[in-house]
Amino acid sequence: MKHKILLNLVEKLGPSLIKLLMGTLRIKEYDIHNLISAKETHGTVIYAFWHNRMLIPAYTHINQLIHVLISQHRDGEFIARVIIGLGFGTIRGSSQRGGMKALKEAVAISKKYDIAITPDGPTGPKEIVKDGVLYLAYKTGKPIIPGIFLMKSRWELNSWDNFMIPKPFSPVKMIYGKPIFVRSKSEIPEKREELQKALTRI
Question: Which one, 92, 110, 167, 187, has least CB within 10 Å?
Fold first, then answer.
């Protein structure tokens, strides 16, 4: 019962609180031409960004019906309730639970909608790319767009990923990396390293 009440509170208040906080930030976008050209050529893309920085894209890409891969675990349900309220879709599953079903769903959805993945989620290790996003790029033929979000003024939670919450009115840099394509399964180790470097290059 307590869990259900908490879920309802998160669902009702979460989106409004994010909009309220994020609306105070001074967000500047860089290298957006990487995203624009990829979408013009391929229609849809796969966004990749670290789990601890997901608050920023949740606000900057509001109401775009981007479908986010979220775990089926209990914590994932809280995230799902919030982002649905922000105009996102969800795909439920991870490498530990429901992975193949989620992959098939993501392949189908990518034909019409962008996909967003935190390549180090849902349980880490922190800021280490796993293969799931690369395998999805291989199966769909869609480009991965690395998303880098820099915020000097922030709070960090005592969680596995040190989840970041930007402080009100602080500056944020949002950088779109160059598209990464995975043409074959044999390329996955090489492309994993490329994505890792892209997300940690600053």
Answer: 167
172 neighbors 149 (Cβ within 8 angstroms): yes
Return all residues near 121 (Cβ < 8 A) that are at least 6 apart: 51, 71, 94, 161
Contact 180, 37 (CB under 8 A): no
Can you give the three-state secondary structure of the chain, one letter per residue?
CHHHHHHHHHHHHHHHHHHHHHCCCEEEEECCHHHHHHHHHHCCCEEECCHHHCHHHHHHCCCCCCEEEECCCHHHHHHHHHHHHCCCEEEECCCCCCHHHHHHHHHHHCCCCCEEECCCCCCCCCCCCCCHHHHHHHHHCCCEEEEEEECCCEEECCCCCCCEEECCCCEEEEEECCCECCCCHHHHHHHHHHHHHHHCCC
Domain parsing of the chain, residue ranges: 2-199
Closest CA to 199 of 131, 136, 146: 146
Residues 50-107 pLDDT 10s: 999 999 999 999 999 999 999 887 778 889 999 999 999 999 986 666 678 888 999 9
Q: Which amino acid is at 163?
A: F
Q: For residues 91 and 115, is the Cβ–Cβ distance under 8 A? A: yes
pTM above 0.85, yes or no: yes
Q: Which two tokens stand for residue 185?
A: 């399964």
